[in-house]
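**Paired protein data**
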Amino acid sequence: MRVGWSSRTVHTAAAEIEEAGGQALAVVGVRGLRLGQNGEVPRPPILDVPISEDPIRVGQFLKLAGLAEHGVHAKELLEAGEVQVNGRAETRRGARLRTGDVVVQGRRARPITPPAG
């Protein structure tokens, strides 16, 4: 079986694997992706989310940043280990975030204190 970069080839390969009774796993390339100077894939920008209280609990921040739809969703994401804070998995909904901490759940976001004024 030959797998190339075209979506047609990937879908064909996935169909052949499924027909054989296996599960399909495909790695798809992105055309036109520009790599950094060292060949690394650039990260998406971090979303700065203004907060009124510092510190803020991670569950509240997930909702405020739009990374979770509601409190139960935030709890489920944390319990499933799908949230990272500063590069480490976080499972506690009440864990406190401070200005500048980086939270990752699909997208990256960080709490910031809005400028006075």
User: Anything to note?
Assistant: The two ends are 63 Å apart (CA to CA). The chain has two domains: 1-42, 47-112. Residues 1-42 form one domain.
